[in-house]
Amino acid sequence: MIFEYTAEFAKTLDQKNELGALRDEFILPQHEGSDAIYFLGNSLGLQPKRAKSYVLQVMDQWAHFGVEGFFRGEQPWMKYHDQLLSSLCVFVGAEPAEVVVMNQLSVNLHLMLASFYQPQGRRNKILCEAKAFPSDQYVLDTHLKQRGFKPEEVIIEVQPRKGEELIREADILSAIGQHAEELALVFWGGVNYYTGQVFNMETIAMAARSVGAKVGFDLAHAAGNIPLRLHQWDVDFACWCSYKYLNSGPGAIGGCFIHDRYHKDPSIHRFAGWWGNKKETQFLMQKQFEPELSAQGWQLSTPSPMLYAAHKASLDVFEEAGITNVFQKNKELNRFLWFVLEHIEREVGRDLMKILTPRNEEARGCQVSLSISSGKRVFDELTISGVYADWREPDVIRVAPVALYNTFAEVWQFGQLLKSAIIKHSS
User: Which segments of 94-243 are extended strands (E)?
Assistant: First the structure.
């Protein structure tokens, strides 16, 4: 499609958009009596209107049935998890048995490391991206120390080249080859939180497994943002959160993918809890743990049906929209955003605004990260104008318009507000 740099063209795109009505399914923050421009799907997705009724249904079952709510009512809590799987399997490209909804992201990463980081002799290294999200760095650092390793001796980080912001795929593959005999695990983020760079997970997984290493991904900024094919890519494990692009609320329940080749593998060690026990024997209260022969065998504690309910409220909206349709509109919104931003970049000059996110469409998702001169003042100006964006030191503004509740007209309006703020604060 050939874009036009006008407000009228943006409105025309919205009129043609078949998903436009789904915006009414969400509660949008207000600014001076109108909808604010909320471009923070990469940080915390908006609340589906139906989330309150879904959570209240759980509360009502608790009120009416007490503990019997696990077995009685319209949606017994014991079966709630199964209602989440069909959508999530489409999002991450998995078989139903390979997905489990549990805990939050960092907890799940520790649990996966306990199972899939299995150092043997000199094969004890973990390869990861430099400048990953801090929580990932904390997880690796403390997990290794708890296991008796010195992180500085075990962790191999792949950096962007000097003067560059993005990590080259060739450098990742070169590092895997260079440390082939030492690697126990390649652990990588699917999308870099700072730059929005989407990594070629299929290629990374293939390279890791070719040298005998396990491979796992943090999909915090990927799940719901870009299509994934974890089973097809032969990934060992992956973890994600659901409060960003999956709109399931602050502190929402997370998820894991565990390839089905491990479900019956007795050599895989794990931390166990009673909710991961076989359902047939769970209430016999036996001393011996018998894992459920699926990803659900990695569960520990009784999950909150209220968190399940908030998650389901969002997943149901995706189902109604058609998940492939959502990914397609994500891409179209991003293309138009790039068209607008590149126009502004030419007008104001790269000294005032530089796009950090890859220009290659295959290496980006919804998020665009902008390095802006006088960035904090520009960010504050946008905030005053009713734009919800994200600030990252020292000079980066991140935005991520998403399919379910953002519009092409908002992308156009954001661009004009951004250009005005940059010019205003350029001196």
Answer: 99-101, 125-129, 155-158, 183-189, 214-218, 237-240
d(C-alpha 167, C-alpha 195), whole Å: 10
Backbone angles phi, psi at 383, to 5 degrees: -60, -45
For residue 318, what are its two tokens?
């995706």
- Counting as low any pLDDT under 70, the low residues of the chain are 427
The candidate with the shortest Cα–Cα distance to 383, out of 94, 40, 90, is 40
* Model pTM score: 0.96
Q: What is the DSSP letter of 248?
A: -
DSSP track, 48-83: ETTHHHHHHHHHHHHHHHGGGGGTSSSS-GGGTTHH
Q: What is the pLDDT of residue 395?
A: 95
Q: What pLDDT does 1 receive?
A: 81
Provide the CA 382 distance to its chain's centre, in angstroms: 25
The CATH code of domain 54-319 reads 3.40.640.10
Identity of the residue numbered 226: I
Condensed to tens digits (0 to 9), the pLDDT of residues 378-399 reads 999 999 999 999 999 999 999 9
Q: What is the DSSP secondary structure assignment for residue 403, as one 8-state letter?
A: T
What is the rounded CA–CA span in Å between residue 94 and residue 182? Answer: 29
Short-list 363, 257, 255, 367, CA closest to 314: 255
Spans of all domains in the chain: 7-35+323-424, 54-319
Which CATH architecture does the domain made up of 7-35+323-424 adopt?
Alpha-Beta Complex (3.90)
Instruction: Output the pLDDT for position 183.
Output: 98
Q: Tell me: the pLDDT tens digits for 239-297?
A: 999 999 999 999 999 999 999 999 999 999 999 999 999 999 988 888 999 999 999 99
- φ, ψ of residue 256 to 5 degrees: the values are -135, 150
Do residues 297 and 282 make contact, with C-beta atoms less than 8 angstroms apart?
no
